[in-house]
């Protein structure tokens, strides 16, 4: 996906007065060994394998693992994460940040060693979207 031009932070004052909704998009991970019918049954039991991303200003920001020592932060078109099936959107709050501030924050996160792809751990980093939102809502 081509990166949006976020340098034109239009209408900054409106964001500061009312805030902008931040969405959490939740996906079922597409695990080849698990049939879709089992994923659906697991969901109804309150368990499953999920991916999530924080969506704001028409871009969804995600974190995922890979073996390289490079950032695990990536952007996708909202509701179109790779290797996952979109399940639902949850409104998690509002931010007073404008598009340029969000872009700066995400770039800082991407440069941080905390968000490296090879440091991803399903058991210890599963709350990344909550952490991302907390940073947006400073």
What are the main properties of this structure?
single chain, 138 residues, alpha+beta, endopeptidase fold (from Nostoc punctiforme), five-stranded antiparallel beta sheet, 4 helices, 5 strands, globular, disordered N terminus
In short:
With 138 residues, the protein is α+β, with helices and mostly antiparallel strands. The protein contains 4 helices and 5 strands; from the N terminus they run αβαββββαα. It has helices at residues 12-18, 36-44, 99-111, 128-136, and strands at residues 20-29, 50-56, 59-63, 73-76, 84-95.
Tell me what you see in this structure.
The chain is α+β, with helices and mostly antiparallel strands and 138 residues long. The chain has a single domain (20-136), classed as endopeptidase fold (from Nostoc punctiforme), CATH 3.90.1720.30. The chain is 28% helix and 28% strand. The protein contains 4 helices and 5 strands, in the order H-E-H-E-E-E-E-H-H. It has helices at residues 12-18, 36-44, 99-111, 128-136; strands at residues 20-29, 50-56, 59-63, 73-76, 84-95. A 5-stranded antiparallel beta sheet has the order 4-3-2-1-5. Strand 2 (50-56) and strand 3 (59-63) form a beta hairpin. The longest helix is centred in the last third of the chain and has 13 residues, at 99-111. The protein is globular. The two termini are 28 Å apart. Mean pLDDT is 80; it is low at 1-11.
């Amino acid at each position: 996906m081509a990166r949006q031009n976020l340098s034109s932070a239009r209408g900054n004052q409106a964001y500061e007065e009312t805030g902008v909704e931040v969405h959490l998009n939740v996906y079922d991970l597409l695990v080849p060994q698990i049939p879709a019918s089992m994923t659906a049954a697991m969901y109804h039991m309150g368990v499953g394998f999920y991916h999530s991303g924080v969506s704001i200003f028409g871009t969804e920001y995600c974190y995922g693992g890979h073996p390289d020592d490079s950032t695990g932060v990536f952007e996708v078109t909202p509701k179109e994460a790779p290797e996952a099936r979109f399940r639902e959107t949850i409104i998690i709050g509002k931010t007073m940040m404008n598009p340029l501030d969000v872009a700066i924050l995400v770039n800082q996160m991407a440069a941080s060693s905390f968000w490296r792809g090879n440091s991803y751990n399903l058991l210890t980093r599963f709350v990344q979207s909550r952490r991302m939102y907390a940073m947006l809502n400073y």
